[in-house]
Design goal:
Elements: E1 2-6, H1 10-21, E2 25-30, H2 33-39, E3 46-49, H3 55-60, E4 68-71, H4 76-89, E5 93-98, E6 119-122, H5 123-132, E7 140-145, E8 151-157, H6 175-178, E9 181-188, E10 191-193, E11 206-212, H7 213-223, E12 233-237, H8 241-252, E13 256-261, H9 264-273, E14 279-282, H10 288-293, E15 301-304, H11 309-321, E16 326-331, H12 336-341, E17 348-351, H13 352-363, E18 369-374, E19 380-386, E20 408-414, E21 417-419, E22 432-438, H14 439-442
Parallel strand pairs: 1-2, 1-4, 2-3, 4-5, 5-6, 12-13, 12-15, 13-14, 15-16, 16-17
Antiparallel strand pairs: 7-8, 8-11, 9-10, 9-11, 18-19, 19-22, 20-21, 20-22
């Protein structure tokens, strides 16, 4: 596909890099010539300096023949204008990054289509939803979704009190349930491992478990220690849209919410935007006395989603030390995700940029290969592949196929069926295979999953 990316910020650079690695023809447009000069050698694609609201610049970028335009700059209005122009020039698939829905009005019949927007996404809402998915269960570290809405993958932590610690996968009780799910990957000591039946689970392991949602939920319920309790009290540190969205949605689910906002005036504004029984405190979230006042020792979850990555990480470490059962940190610079994940006290860490990039990648469909999620914990991705008639895997059992040793097949979607593949599984034309793929593996997959 020929794809134009508008905006060379953190998100634009990440998308341009990921898409070019997938052999897409990528053009990156930004008005900051210095920034483009700095990154031009780091991505396999063309860069063009100029305004994204310029018809001339968009034509130079190839908008008249482009398959998609991704407007992901930090300027919402500029993103909308770029999509409008691209749509007029013939680009059907325009994806627009928004920060609010104030430019739309259902009452006045003004929606995304009015501006030529094919798909839209909100970075703050995507981050809030990502965090929301790990609040309800103490051992869930991440939730991953697929094109099939009935399938899911959860990342679970093996703790010293876990019923799974010291158990080999093949010996996990409940073989009937175990046949319905797949231990798709395991992260141990910063290394991605391929789990097998004889893999012994140990404290500190993070396991990726995939299957039908109802089966995954049943497994997680069984695996959660009885004394873990159900999280109910949450403290959120943050002063922007993501924190407000998270507070509202968590409150709707029945959580008791307290918020910490550094600036008093901003806090007063947020107090008007959240439910009246949400307590908003003002001050430094790294101040132990303020955290004590917020009730940190009795908090089930502490979440820090400020724009300051260092503050998010530090406040989570302090909150954990003061008694918070689970702490969740948001970062914005992609490289900070590894730093946060490697700090023992931090239970969950998400990159807002990576969350947004995954949202965009989910919207792009084409050919037989689709990158669904770039994993937060290591340099790998979850990809969905459609089995073509010409694929060497079509009509063969997996045990007879010559698969790369590091390739992990997690799930198969066949019509309404969702199942974990085994050695005797025969893949059929039209099947969608979910795989955990590393960069080393990706290049070897073109022959296994040809376009036709």
């Amino acid at each position: 596909m020929k794809i134009i990316v508008i905006g060379a910020g953190e998100l634009g650079r990440l998308l341009a890099s990921a898409l070019s690695e997938e052999d897409h023809d990528v053009v990156l447009v930004d008005s900051d010539t210095d920034e483009l000069d700095r990154i031009s050698g780091k991505i396999d694609g063309m860069t063009i300096a100029g305004s994204c609201s310029s018809v001339k610049i968009l034509k130079e970028a190839g908008a008249e023949t482009a398959d998609a335009l991704l407007a992901v700059s930090g300027d919402e209005a500029a993103n909308i204008v770029a999509c409008q122009i691209a749509n007029k020039l013939g680009v059907k698939h325009t994806v627009c990054r928004l920060y609010s829905d104030e430019c739309f009005s259902e009452e006045d019949a003004i929606g995304p289509a009015t501006f030529g927007l094919w798909r839209t996404f909100s970075s703050p809402e995507e981050s809030a939803d990502k965090i929301l998915a790990v609040l309800a269960n103490p051992i869930t570290l991440e939730s991953i979704t697929f094109t099939n809405p009935d399938a899911a993958m959860l990342v679970l932590e093996i703790t010293r009190s876990s019923v799974l610690q010291g158990v080999r996968i093949r010996d996990i009780p409940g073989p009937e349930l175990l046949r319905k799910i797949r231990f798709a990957a395991l992260l141990r000591d910063r290394q991605l491992l391929v789990p097998h039946g004889d893999t012994l689970l140990i404290p500190g392991d993070r396991v990726y478990v995939a299957g039908r949602k109802e089966d995954i939920d049943a497994f997680v319920k069984w695996a959660t220690p009885e004394n873990a309790g159900t999280p109910s009290r949450i403290i959120i540190s943050g002063d922007d849209a993501a924190s407000v969205i998270l507070a509202r949605k968590a409150h709707e689910l029945g959580f008791g919410i307290r918020m910490i906002v550094r600036d008093e005036k901003t806090g007063e504004k947020i107090q008007d935007e959240v439910p009246p029984d949400v307590m908003v405190l003002h001050g430094d979230p790294t101040d132990e006395s303020l955290l004590d006042s917020a009730g940190i020792s009795a908090a089930d979850v502490f979440v820090s989603v400020t724009q300051d990555d260092e503050e998010n990480i530090l406040s989570c470490i302090i909150a954990k030390r003061l008694g918070a059962k689970k702490v969740v940190s948001l970062t914005h610079r992609p490289e900070y995700i590894r730093i946060a994940r490697e700090m023992g006290p931090i239970d969950c860490a998400f990159s807002a940029t990576l969350v947004a990039a995954n949202s965009v990648l989910r919207l792009l469909e084409g050919g037989n290969k689709r990158v669904d999620v770039q994993l937060q914990s290591f340099k790998a991705a979850i990809s969905e592949f459609r089995i073509a008639h010409s694929s060497p895997l079509c009509g063969k059992t997996l045990s007879a196929a010559k698969l790369p040793a590091s390739l992990i097949l997690a799930l198969v979607f066949r019509g309404s069926e969702i199942f974990a593949p085994a050695g005797d599984t025969v893949l059929l034309e039209g099947d969608i295979v979910v795989a955990v793929v590393t960069r080393d593996t990706m290049r070897a997959l073109d022959k296994l999953f040809p376009a036709k």
